[in-house]
Design brief:
three-stranded antiparallel sheet; five-stranded antiparallel sheet; 6 helices
């Protein structure tokens, strides 16, 4: 069952991702009072994580956090995208490291965690292990179609990339539509349609997914940049990259100079 969690301390850079990765309670940090006693709570349609408000947390194999309509950056992979032997060694090494590094962590420890563990997973995914069925344009188009289908109704779609063996997407849930329900809809529909297209049966996707709630515009642009740069070493036609819809990126401005960074729907960068 989902439960609410106090978000104090979750706004520090990198802390949210590290906390979510190790099944540990939120790091506690002092949050200065709001000047002049103003109410710091954000409305339900706030774009980003509000450290003064509660976070709705639920678990499957991984913890998942959401807060109203705050932006989410989500990644999931094909079931065969990571080599089982390497993954077992990675898990054993991570468990040992965590036992020697109890919470709370400083910024240096958070960076070390991501360098040793998170970035290794990213490198394995980018190495193209497994069947890589999403390299097939018809399969990638099924994922893109699923993203577009309820855009503006259940969520607003931002930039996304369909890599040969995994997917990254930025999106903003609409009120009344939970993160887990949106992901279940995407994964179940695409698994059925891709298996049908390939004439196969069985498990397509990993059982769970990774999500990161977006803290601010700078974090949003960092995630967008990661999405855009992720396929930089792949040949054209082996991935599908889109900027998303105008509604999906509404309210997101250029961090550097304040220009409107919204892109029209269907800008294809990886055709």
């Amino acid at each position: 069952m989902p439960r609410k969690k106090n978000a104090q301390g979750a706004a520090s850079s990198g802390a949210v991702d590290a906390i979510k990765a190790i099944k540990h309670p939120a790091m506690r940090k002092h949050i200065p009072p709001v000047p002049h006693g103003r109410d710091a709570r954000a409305p339900i349609d706030a774009l980003f994580l509000n450290p003064f408000e509660e976070i709705l947390e639920h678990w499957h194999r991984l913890p998942h956090w959401e807060q109203g309509q705050a932006w989410q950056f989500v990644t999931w992979r094909l079931a065969d995208a990571l080599p089982a032997e390497s993954l077992a060694e990675w898990q054993a090494e991570k468990d040992l490291w965590l036992a020697k590094h109890p919470q709370p962590w400083d910024d240096k420890t958070v960076s070390e965690y991501h360098e040793r563990f998170s970035q290794r997973i990213d490198r394995w995914l980018d190495a193209g292990h497994g069947s890589c069925v999403l390299r097939d344009r018809a399969c990638a188009d099924i994922v893109a179609k699923a993203f577009r289908h309820f855009d503006g109704e259940r969520y607003g779609i931002g930039p996304f990339v369909v890599m040969p063996n995994h997917v990254h997407v930025l999106f903003r849930p609409k009120e009344g539509h939970a993160l887990e329900d949106i992901l279940h809809s995407w994964k179940s529909y695409t698994a059925k349609e891709i298996n049908r297209a390939l004439g196969r049966k069985g498990t397509l996707w990993q059982e769970d997914y990774w999500d990161r709630m977006i803290r601010n515009e700078r974090h949003w642009h960092a995630c967008r940049r990661y999405i855009v740069e992720n396929p930089s070493r792949l040949a054209p036609g082996t991935y599908l990259l889109e900027e998303g819809s105008a509604e999906g990126s509404a309210g997101i401005l250029s961090v550097e100079c304040g220009r409107d960074a919204r892109a029209p729907f269907g800008v294809l960068l990886g055709r």
